[in-house]
Fold:
Amino acid sequence: MDGTYAGSYGRIRSYYTDFLDDAFMASLVGRKNDEIGQMLLKTNYREDLEALSSTYSGRAHLENAINRHFVKKNKLAISSPPPGVKDFLKLYVSKWDIDNIKILLASKELGHKISLDDTFIVNSRGIPMGVFAGNISPEEFRVLLGLPSLESSIDYLSRHPVGVAMASRLDEYRRTADLSFLFTAMDTFYFSEVLRTLLFIRGDESPVRSYFRDYIDLRNIMVILKARDQEMDFAIIKERLSPGGSISPAALEDLFRNSPVADIYQSAGKVAGGESEQHPANLSDLEIMTRMHLYRRYHPSFMASSISVNTIFDFVLTAERERDILRGIVIGSSYGMKNDSVLRLTGMGV
Structure:
């Protein structure tokens, strides 16, 4: 690879020591939030907790500190790679913009006001994740929050490709009042662009491409399972399937129409690389389990690769995994959940 960037990739590898190990995170399970905070103060989360201590308390303090730390990790990742890889990473983290926009649109649909410091918004110091990647500015997010309706928000977002994608489905939303048309438009745009951007990376990026194909397959299987659970017809959910996976639309339709639910669960497990006999009790557990298995399946190959896009993408995925686990532990503490339930919620029990 280009020696100009070898040092940057090497620095990313050195930052792996900053991640919390699984044993430490497991030791947080079952503790009260104030205990969790005290234990995190002894880690590299100290600066985040101290920076937010005068603004938040309790669960909100922990969740915002976890988000802040997560954003910092992603900023570090985006600052390191060569231009082609940076374009891919900027697009990848735009999924947090999309998640934030979904939350914002749903809140407007419900008439519920939110702000940038809402714990469901992934941000640092009131600045959403995508800002650091140059995807959308802080001022634009603040304008969006102040707009009176969902449609005015989509009109404002039409200056961005994701807004154009939503606008193309606006008539269907108006006819049905179903937000899924708008959300599907964003997701389809996102996955198509991620896969397109990967084509322009020159190097050993095949593990990343393989990861995304499996990720899309898992997402599509989850769409099928949710549709079966709600007794929806395949014609309704066909367009909600994301392009780019290894399982063809025809194979997905056959899975939907002709396979018992248990077999569809097993298909998800096989794609993720987990044990085929594992059969979670519900769809939420399956989603968490497959996401964790997929990470565990690809993490060794990413780390074994020569220093490349695989290295830095694994760093981003590891940061996501740590955030998901810590947030699950905090949520479990807040609601007094049993330890085994928290382990399922975080995926640490699979």
